[in-house]
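worker-03 picked up job from queue 'complexes'. Input manifest follows; two sequence lines, order preserved.
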Amino acid sequence: NAGVTQTPKFQVLKTGQSMTLQCAQDMNHEYMSWYRQDPGMGLRLIHYSVGAGITDQGEVPNGYNVSRSTTEDFPLRLLSAAPSQTSVYFCASSYDRGAHEQYFGPGTRLTVT
Amino acid sequence: AQSVTQPDIHITVSEGASLELRCNYSYGATPYLFWYVQSPGQGLQLLLKYFSGDTLVQGIKGFEAEFKRSQSSFNLRKPSVHWSDAAEYFCAVGAQSNTGKLIFGQGTTLQVKP
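worker-03 finished. Artifact:
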């Protein structure tokens, strides 16, 4: 049982490039989410999904896309990277939307130059 | 709107001393409350949670927290801090029971002096 896995661990992009951050969980969790962590701001919700085929926006969705074609995977796409997207990104999952106890992946540290 | 405030950005305590990290929340209904810990370069690990019932909850690593509705607080405590407790601590509130969204505080960095 690997829990929540994220790839890559580190990434450097140039402004305007696109990329996909991968997130997978093997706990058959219904709920998955993406957060970004910036110094002094805690974690802010980007997008979340309450099940396969269902996604919704969080607090800071601009510049990011998500899809949820399977229960296991929840990739986060940066459409055209900007320096303001330099951050640490965490994926999380939980059994369902009501449980709220979320399990976090190890994070992806992204730098946009 | 829901919000979480951790008034202390940085706290330093001596090893063996007691610890209290403060958390205040704003939420209209009965909240779901959490404390997470993040060691350097790591993801977040759940320390403890409050959903309902006994307002004093016990967590892992010897931590406990007390929910005080009248003060809108959920402070984290530990009677004797160990050097390995040095980390960043986040308080979070369940924003809406139907969506599972969490609102996090800004975090408190704990430094432990030998």
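worker-03 released lock.
The two ends of chain B are 41 Å apart (CA to CA).
The interface with chain A takes residues 4, 9, 32, 34, 36, 42-46, 49, 51, 90, 92, 94, 97-107 of chain B (CB under 8 Å).
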